[in-house]
Amino acid sequence: MKHVKINSGDFMKTNPLSATLQVFLYFFLLVILTAVGYSFTLSWDKAYIIGYILILLFFIKRYHSLLKEEGKKVKEAFLSWKKAIPIQALFLFLSLLINALLIHFLGSISGNEQLLRGEFFSSPFLLSIVVAFLAPVAEEFIFRFPYVKVKKSLGIFLLYSFLFALIHLTPSTKVLSYLFIVPYFFLSLFIGYPFYKSGNIYLSIGTHILYN
Predict the structure, then answer these.
(1) Contact 51, 27 (CB under 8 A)
(2) Which sign does the torsion angle of CA 50, 12, 152, 23 carry?
(3) CA dist., res. 142 & res. 71, Å (int)
(4) Are 99 and 172 within 8 A, CB to CB?
(5) Residue 188 half-sphere exposure, CB side, CA atoms within 13 Å?
(6) Measured on CA atoms in the order 12, 23, 140, 151, is the torsion positive or negative?
(7) What is the pTM of this model?
(8) Radius of gyration of the chain from Cα atoms?
């Protein structure tokens, strides 16, 4: 009997709805892993590191063949994306501009930014590891990688950009603070645009790391 080798990437859903459900599933898994990490360490800084490392190991184990395949296409993908850098730069400019305007008129930064700054000053070394590397890679795997086998379209690009922006909002009693989803949305467009144009997740990972 002839044996057929099946790559782990072959199991990835190609339906947009299925891919979106995977996003929520992977994010929920990250939350659980982080909570477990906190139960052992009683430190959110260490818990974040544990959660991110475990979710990265999960992706590497489950999708190693597909990730390896995408890695071989980075150079080709970069050539197809670099012409779109001006548009990407526009997304970043709009994100920074709108964020600055909101801070000016609301008199405060976003809740997510407040949390990050608080954690950074309490544990700068650990949070630097999280922010500079672990979080960007994990977030790209969670919010964009499930769409790697989905047919590319503007609607899908806007969808995973919105999901990324939405998850960066923190609960607040100040309704106007939710307006920060707008600069986060443009930031997500900036980070995810290389993936949208090239279809290669590594370009968005690199962009995310550089931005952070």
Answers:
(1) no
(2) negative
(3) 18
(4) no
(5) 24
(6) positive
(7) 0.87
(8) 18
Query: Six-digit token pair at 96?
Result: 């920074």
Supply 148's token pair: 């790697």
Hey, what amino acid is at 191?
A: I
Query: 122-165 pLDDT, tens per residue?
Result: 677 777 788 889 999 999 999 999 999 898 899 999 999 999 99
Tokens at 188, concatenated: 């997500």
